[in-house]
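re the bet — no i am not wrong, look at it urself. input seq straight from the record:
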Amino acid sequence: MVMNNYGSRRLSLLLVLLITLSACGTAGEISSSGGVSQDAEAPTQDKRYTITWTMHLNEAVPGNAEMLHYIEEKFNVDLEIWNLENNNYEALLDLKLAQGEIPDLFRIRQSYDLLKYRNQNVLAEIPDGMLEAYAPNLTRSIMIHAPGYMDYGRIEGRQYGIPVVNQTNRYRVPVVYREDWLDRLGLQPPATLEELEKVMYAFTNGDPDGNGKHDTYGLSIEGMNVVFGAFGQMVFTEQLYFAEKGSGLVIGALEPEMKKALRYLQKWYRDGVIDPEFVTGENKGGYKHLSHAFINGRIGMTSMGNYYHWVQAGDYKVYNEKGAEVPVEASFNAMELFKKNDQARIVFGKPVTGPEGKSGSKAYDRLMSFTAIGANAADEPGKMAKILEILDYVSANPDLEERMTMRYGVKGKHWEWAGQSEDDVVTLPPYDKQVNYTNRIGANIGMLVPGMPDARREQWASTLGLDEHGIYNALKVSVPSLIQNSPRLIKLRNKAYISIITGDKPIGYFDVFVKEFMRAGGEEVLEEANEWYRSIPEA
C-alpha cells in the first residue's frame, strides 16, 4: 500500500500516544502536574448524578427502557436520553441549545461541528489525563487502532472531543448498476469513462426495462461523482472536499480538470442521458440513503448510500436464531427495489477510469463524528468522571459478553451466541423481526470504537474491492473560516456546477466561478486549511 503524506504524518504520532497512555496508569495515579487529581475529579461517593445523554437514534428510547435501568443501577445514576431523531439531529439539537439546554454527553454527529460548538461555549474541556484515567479501554482502542485520531479532538491544544472512528469506512461508496438492464442490452459493467458513456446512453435509449416507453435515464446526481472521480476529485458532497496536491491542500471542485468532467456531463444532459430531476436529488424523503430514482426504475446507475445499503439476498451467510447458517436477507435499497420489481438485479462495478488513469468513488473518513462533554457537566464535581466511566463501560468493555450485552441487550432474551463459538451473535425472536429494537430497550447507547472490521458483512465488502479507489476528504477537521463561509461556498459550488451541466452557462464559466468562490471566502478557507495541514508533524 502506498501511503500519502497525510498518512505518514499521522503514523508518527502513534509512539507518542502509546507512551502517553501507558504512562498515565489508572485513576488516582495521575499527578496534578500535567494530569488530573483524583480528589478533584473523581465522582463523589454516594451521589446520584442525573446525566442527559445524546446518541444515534432511529427510534425514541422509552424512559423505562430495561437496559437504561440496568446501567442506572450499576452506576447509581439517572439517565435521561434526549430523543433527537437522527435525520434531523442538528436542527433539534440546536433548538435545545438555543433554549439554554446542554446535554451532558454531547454527540457531535458531523465532525466539522466540533469547532462550532466549542466556539458557542457549550462544550467542556476534558483535562489532560481524564480520558486515560476514567475511560481507559476506549482510549486504548483509539490509540492502537486509529493512531493520531485523538488529536483531532483538540482545539488550541485542549481536548474537547473524543473521536468516533468507524473502521468500516475503509470501504468506499459502491458504484451500482441494474444488472438486468445490462443483460438485456448485452452490456457489462463499464471499466472506463468511455464505456460508462456507452452504457448511460444505452440505459436511456435502449428501453432497458422493456416497457416500450422512453422513461429511463442513465444516471442522476450521485452517479455524477463517479465521473468526477475519473478525474480524481469529488464535488457533490455535503462538505467541501479537499485533496492533497504537491505539498499542500486544494479544493477539489476548483481543480481545472473538473472542466473536462463538466464537458461530459453537459453533453449527457443535453442528450437526455441525465435524469432532468437530478437537481432535487435521488432521495425523495424517508431514510436518507435510499435512492428512489434507482428503486423506481428511473435510472440504471447510482453511487448513493453505503455498501450495506445494497446487500442482496444471499450475498453472504449469517446465523439464524438456531445458530444455523442461512443466506442474508436483502437490505435497504436492494430490499426496496425488489419490492417494486422482483425480477430486478443489481451488480457492483468499479469506479471508472478517466483519460489520465484516475478513478474513485466517494469515501467517508474513518473520523465519523465526535463525542464530547457538555459545558454544564464540568460545573458539577465528579460528574465528568462519572460520564466517562459509563461511556467506557458501554462502548469498549473488555469483557466480551458484557460488551455484547451493552450492544444488544440481555443474553438469552435478546441475543445468543451463534453456535459454539463466541465470534458472532444472533438476535432472538421476536426481536429479530423488530427494526431498531435496541433503541426501544435502551441498548447500544455508547459510541463506536475502532477495531479491525472482521464481521461477515465486511468480509463480503472486501471481496468486492470496496477498500480500494476511495476518495477521502483530506481536511479532517474544521477551521474557523470554514464555519463562517462553508454554507455560502457550497451554495456557490452547486449553483455553478448545475448551471454548467444544464447548459445555462458555458464550460468557460468555470473560471469565473473559481474567482467568485475565492472572493467569497474560499481564499481564506484554503489558507487556513493549509495551515492545519502544515501543522501535522512530519514522519
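see?? Residues 43 and 386 are 6 Å apart (CA to CA). told u. also The chain has 20 helices and 18 strands. so pay up
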